[in-house]
Amino acid sequence: MTAHRVKVVLGLGLISICIGGCEPGYIKRTEEFADRVKSIVNPDELQAWATNLLAASPNADPRTPITVKEADIPPFIRAISTNQIPDVEISGGRDGFEKSVTVWYGSGFGHWGLEIGFPTLVLTNSETHYFVEWKPGIYFWSGP
Questions:
Q1: Number of C-alpha atoms within 13 angstroms, CB side, residue 35?
Q2: Where are the domains of the chain?
Q3: Which of 44, 79, 119, 131 is the most buried (most CB within 10 A)?
Q4: Which of 11, 10, 115 is nearest to 54 (CA)?
């Protein structure tokens, strides 16, 4: 077999493997993050904390979220990552956007976190964000 044929056969083999089982890295990272959160955080406690914040906060411009003070981030949120305290923001309630709390982590290589609101909050995937529902009103996400 010539060197060119070997390359073609190997290339086709890799393509068939990827078609059958490869998934984008952001999906795997989101699933790993979700597994970690689920092992640490009670979703009812998480949603109660977030909806209390939302009820006590004014409506925010969706383009200019309200930053939650680090002192107001509860221990069960801090326990998600021992390497990084997340940024927590409140957004929405104006211009047709439902209010929600975003808990996010990340760096120049991407961001991930939780989006929490009332059970009526519905989020869908977009060109830039991937969402996985945990329970009504709570989503895991990843994006740029």
A1: 6
A2: 25-143
A3: 131
A4: 115
42-26-100 Cα angle (round to 5)? 45
Give 112's contacts (C-beta < 8 A, 6+ positions apart).
26, 29, 30, 33, 104, 105, 106, 140, 141, 142, 143
| Residue type at position 11 | G
How far apart CA 10 and CA 73 sit, in angstroms, is: 51
Instruction: Let me know: does 61 contact 95? Beta carbons within 8 Å.
Output: yes
What are the tens digits of pLDDT across the range 93-104? Answer: 776 778 999 999
Query: Residue 18's Cα: distance from chain center in Å?
Result: 25
**β-strand 100-107 against 66-67: which pairing, if any?**
unpaired
